Amino acid sequence: MGEPTSARGSADLADLAQSSPRATRPISGYDIGMSQPTCPVCKVPLSQAGFTERCPKCTGAWIHEDALVGMMQERTSAMVFLPWQPRDRDQDRACAVCAKPMQAVSLGTVALDRCAEHGVWFDPEELASLLKQAKAFKADVKHEGSSEHHGILGSLAKLFGH
Ligand SMILES: [Zn+2]
Ligand SMILES: [Zn+2]
Questions:
Q1: SS3 for 49-74, per residue?
Q2: For residue 53, what are the domain limits?
Q3: Which residues of the chain have pLDDT under 70?
Q4: 97 CA to middle of ligand 2, Å?
Q5: 3-state SS class at 122
Q6: Is there a domain that residue 147 lies in?
Q7: Which ligand number lies closest to the CA of residue 119?
């Protein structure tokens, strides 16, 4: 009958191990399998700065959504919810990681570009101005007695409390 399957299996495994592309070392600070992000505007490599990746040229910032929420929550000492709003696209920007076109979105008064998988691009000063508005994105979980439904907080209360 045929050849012993066990021998064949181990040969395949050895083959796999040899041809594995894992030889390349991950760049420090980045997850394995993620290439170094590049600036969607200048196309130069971004460098890590705390939770963000900064462009050395335009000083724009790339940040993963989870990290962004974390930063906002640190500012407000509260739960934060980000109500992404679609906006008119002024220019096509490619994701810093996967290079696919990003969604044009806004948060409060800040215009952003977003790849749902990889993160959000902030033009210079945009991240700072969003962080200044962080309190506006507090998730109003407790539902305070005097329910003044104004702007963002009003829609947040609807989303969370019902
Ligand atoms: Zn740049
Ligand atoms: Zn992406």
A1: ECCEEECCCCCCEEECHHHHHHHHHH
A2: 27-160
A3: 1-35, 141-162
A4: 5
A5: strand
A6: yes
A7: 2
Q: Is 137 exposed, middle or buried (0-12, 13-18, 19+ CB in 10 A)?
A: buried
Q: Ligand 1 centroid vs 30 CA: distance in angstroms?
A: 19
Answer yes or no: is 94 within a domain. Answer: yes
Q: For residue 40, report the distance from its CA to the centre of ligand 1, in Å.
A: 7
How many domains, the chain?
1
103 in any annotated domain: yes
Give tens-digit pLDDT for 141-159: 665 554 455 555 556 666 6
Q: Is residue 117 part of a domain?
A: yes
Contact (CB, 8 A) for 62 and 119: yes
CA 119 / ligand 2 centre spacing (Å) = 7
CB 93 within 8 A of CB 72: no
- Residue 104 Cα to ligand 1 midpoint, Å, equals 17
pTM above 0.70, yes or no: no
Whose atoms come closest to the Cα of 34: which ligand? 2
Burial of 6 (C-beta count, 10 Å sphere; 0-12/13-18/19+): exposed
Of all ligands present, the nearest one to the C-alpha of 115 is: 2
User: Any idea which ligand is nearest the CA of 117?
Assistant: 2
Residue 109 sits at the vertex; the CA angle it makes with 105 and 112, to the nearest 5 degrees, is 30
